[in-house]
Amino acid sequence: VKLTWHRQNLRLRHRFATSQYGVDEKETIVVELEHEGVTGYGEVAPSRLYGQTLESSEAALSGCARLLGDDPFALDTILRRLLDTWDGQRAAIAGVDSALHDWIAKRLGVPVWRLLGLKRPSVMTTMTIGVADADETRTKVDEALAAGFRALKVKVGTDDDLRTLEIVRAAFNGPLLLDANQGWDPADAARRIRELAQYRPAMIEQPLRRDDWRHLAELREIDVAPIYADESCERVADVVKLKDVVDGINIKFTKCGGIRAALEMIAVARALGLGVMLGCFACSGLAIAPALAIASLVDFVDLDGHLLLSDDPFPGIACREGIETLPDTAGLGVRPA
Ligand code: MG
Questions:
Q1: Which of 36, 171, 255, 315 is the most buried if burial means most Cβ atoms within 10 Å?
Q2: 252 CA → ligand 1 middle, Å
Q3: Is this structure's pTM higher than 0.85?
Q4: Residue 3 alpha carbon to ligand 1 centre in Å
């Protein structure tokens, strides 16, 4: 089993910002796993928030390449072996997990979603409106609505939240998700949430710092909208700890390590009565496709990373009126342009 990788540069259509950071372009890593004439693909989209960089991911990939063994079908054994050494580099593991799934599905001649026993995904994704000034917010909302999106996610957590939501709600009446990206202070988070109630949020994501679980649990009592954990919830062990703290969790492959780990998190979350959302970072269609393969299992889909690009190097995902689908071809359903 041969593993190779290279960086790819992604250009965003608009500058994208949250309450914590902003980017105009993004570099990710394309992983190729080759065995017996079949190539499986995966993408690594590292995040500094979780101690991952392009360099640390490449170091992990070098290590993983030596641990793959000679049977890509032995997914569980391989991924356990990789996690034993590279537990802190789950963005890289997610790239390998994707490449293994793509390889197996191509080898068997089935789509990844079918390999997993799931129906073909046809899910409504939210389009994310990043932190921006009033004019740019208006432009982004108009663009999203013109493209047919029927659910929006708005980044909040700055002093301009009310102005931003006023602009959004003036143009849009549908499901509105809010994400504070840890931006609020525990002393006034409750007041802010009550203030935002007039904009009828469908849910509120990560209002407080990721380690402030005690105050998170208190916000849930306000009952304006379900509270979801994103930065507070990286992997399956966190899901267990978040029972009775939040109403739901946001799973991202960069945090948890890919399809295999995400399915575990979903099973545990459901057993604990938690809602589930699938999210992403800016990335190409290659990182979105494996998440979309399991998206029929979750309550909220926020898989718009590739839609924020001016040009997707891995086309194949269809998005019409905000509904994303994968083709019924073998593998992930995306290929290099
Ligand atoms: Mg988030």
A1: 255
A2: 9
A3: yes
A4: 31
